[in-house]
């Protein structure tokens, strides 16, 4: 009798699991197409390297996606493309269904649906010691406008009360930006310390350069990062699906474990 009850319970459990899996597969396209910035975003999304060649895509965000999609055998593909094009393609439901590694601002809230945050970063400002031997001391966002600011193309600076016109020049790579500082073509660069530390994994250890000074930007809360989806019925289903899965990963401690795996080797400054 007890064996029969146990068998019935197991049958019910597996039936419910199959129904849930079938429902999840109905939400997802046959091939889920995801894009991100080709400038790379270590330690969250970047390519491992052999001399002279990019190889496998890796990082925290890549493993989060794998933790969600591989257990349900969902085919997916991540393409690293121009960031502005990535946003355009997702917003207009063109080639891609979603993008990853995005902070939020008013424009993005208007243009996209967004997931719950799945990691946070901390903003620092960077400068060249040779051109500012006494350092740069920032006490408020207003102080930033006294300097020639260099920014990354397509990135979100409104969080710091900056307009596009407040950025003197934009570049499309971290190396070019730090060269601007070192050659006195810009004074100041705002970036998340986790990202700059993460570039050591790409062979570009900017924090080890003794000519670069950096400090945390005062009165700045951690910046949250999200997945973005188009404002369509399918986009809403995808947003709800990923929010459900992210909640599961968080409750199981998987998000924290993955984050520690990628941040601990690279993050020099603890928060």
Element-level helix/strand string: HEEEHEHEHEEEHEEHEHEEHH
CATH top level of the largest domain is Alpha Beta
Helix content: 25-40%
CATH superfamily of the largest domain: Periplasmic binding protein-like II
Radius of gyration over alpha carbons?
21 Å
Count the DSSP helices: 9
Overall 3D form: globular
Number of strands: 13
Give the termini distance in whole angstroms.
58 Å
Instruction: Count up the domains.
Output: 2
CATH fold type of the largest domain: D-Maltodextrin-Binding Protein, domain 2
Low-pLDDT regions: 13-19
CATH architecture of the largest domain: 3-Layer(aba) Sandwich
Hey, roughly how much beta strand do the residues contain? 15-25%
Averaging pLDDT over every residue, what do you get? 89
Organism: Zooshikella harenae
Signal peptide: 1-22
Keywords: Signal
Pfam families: SBP_bac_3 (PF00497)
